[in-house]
């Protein structure tokens, strides 16, 4: 059945998800902050800043008016950067339908509170209840999704009904949606993989080879899983699309903003210059900060995250960081099963 759906956020990901929804025949409104961009989407059917060269469906209607975009809509999909989630939720509250199904597709933590995005949504939106809240995660570069290239994602929710509704809404022949009951794990895996993608880009930027990158992905997955388990995630989620799947996509793709930022850092560029050059959200930088604090709070060893924190925020030389990782004390490969192991 065709639905009225509003997507909040017209960056790469919001635009790509609006395209999937339009392909599925839904009536799609996309809320856009910038009036010029709204006009461009409505008249030229293109989002030049975030996804140039791609013709968007004429069935996607852009609006800058949050009230009319959201009022009476049964489904709202949030695709904003993590730093904007709380503020956007506050703006949405007066207009949301009491029975609305909320799906978020954001990969990050709130830095100040170290909360997951669903925790932020539940705090701010009185009509948000866990039985009508889902997260979309998994290996999915917007640039490939808009070209209708085969993509698989995960919808996670504590509610079976919300998972199935979200799966029905989004799934098509190019966009395969799996369900997973582990909302906590899907959010944590999706957020933390960006740290490792920064590291993988840095390794490439430094000129290291495939062995180093394989090590980063594998041991990165170990430390992500360790923190995730401590925070209540289910271990199999990290072996799935939101975990290893998204690690592979993000750590090996030139589409990845996190990989690209890491690459430039590895080549010796300054963090501020890199972020300015990217012009798009690089969630891994804030997430490294958040994960470093979470790991300390929870007493979980995260050596790669700790070294990246030093490089990003304390001026550590990347090569010295690699040396520190390589010269760490001896350890046992399966220590990731122990939350306090290394
Ligand atoms: N791009 C992808 O391929 C992709 C895939 C999966 C998940 N994600 C996740 O989706 C989220 C959004 O990423 P994106 O790629 O669309 O980012 P983007 O940089 O392409 O666009 C960000 C969008 O958010 C808007 N924005 C920024 N600050 C805002 C604020 N304070 N209030 C309202 N809107 C604000 C910008 O105007 C822009 O439209 C991130 O958490 C990202 O990790 C992205
Ligand atoms: O471009 P990135 O690095 O923000 O990654 C985008 C998606 O999360 C990939 O699944």
TrEMBL record:
Keywords noted in UniProt: Cytoplasm, Lipid biosynthesis, Lipid metabolism, NAD, NADP, Nucleotide-binding, Oxidoreductase, Phospholipid biosynthesis, Phospholipid metabolism
Pfam families found in the cross-reference section: NAD_Gly3P_dh_C, NAD_Gly3P_dh_N
Record's protein name: Glycerol-3-phosphate dehydrogenase [NAD(P)+]
Enzyme class: oxidoreductase
EC number: 1.1.1.94
Organism in which the protein naturally occurs: Brevibacillus reuszeri
Binding-site positions, sn-glycerol 3-phosphate: 107, 138, 140, 193, 246, 256-258
Pathway assigned to this chain's UniProt record: Membrane lipid metabolism; glycerophospholipid metabolism
